[in-house]
Design goal:
This protein is of the alpha/beta class. It has helices at about 20-30, 40-45, 50-55, 60-75, 90-95, 110-115, 130-145, 160-170, and strands spanning about 10-15, 35, 80, 100-105, 150-155.
Length: about 180
């Protein structure tokens, strides 16, 4: 797209299972805007699930695909954009997110366990899922907070309630 593209109306970040895809789709509907998910972009481009990319090519390869997907989506997409849970680990990605309407969706470990079951289908949580989730969040929470304009807790809240808070916080009311 042209340099005139202002980029996404909202960028959603946060841990796996927090509801970025669900909230993103609902927020997109409310804003009459498309929702794009960089994990879906990666799966589509690779022709296989993320877990298989991790197992077949390794995490470094996946992260390279992720950085490229984020860079492309930020340049092309003007609606709601949901990023994968680890996307903020890349300094390049954090730089690209600077000054954008980024919302950090957060949740506690109990909520993560309830929502995802902290199961082995998520490659970074295959061994001792609760401990791994806590470790990932200790590493990632400061990075999420660094790039976020708004932090919204999803604990014990419906997607509609989360969308309302995002719209209020970013003053995203349709005319």
């Amino acid at each position: 797209m042209s340099a005139a593209n202002a980029g996404p109306a909202v960028v959603l970040i946060g841990p796996m299972g927090v509801g970025k895809s669900t909230v993103g789709k609902l927020l997109g509907e409310r804003l009459d805007a498309a929702c794009r998910d960089t994990d879906e972009d990666i799966v589509s481009g690779a022709g296989k699930p993320i877990a298989e990319i991790f197992y077949d090519e390794g995490e470094d390869h996946f992260r390279a695909l992720e950085r490229a997907a984020v860079r492309t989506a930020l340049a092309e997409h003007e609606g709601v954009l949901a990023l994968g849970g680890g996307a903020v680990m890349a300094a390049e990605t954090r730089e690209l997110l600077a000054g954008r309407p980024v919302v950090f969706l957060e949740m506690g470990v109990a909520e993560a366990a309830r929502r995802t079951g902290l199961d082995v289908a998520r490659p970074l949580l295959a061994v001792n899922p609760r401990q791994q989730w806590r470790r990932l969040m200790e590493e990632r929470r400061p990075l999420y907070a660094e790039v976020a304009r708004v932090v919204v807790s999803t604990d014990e809240r419906t997607p509609d309630e989360v969308v309302e808070e995002i719209m209020d916080a970013l003053e995203l009311r349709k005319a």
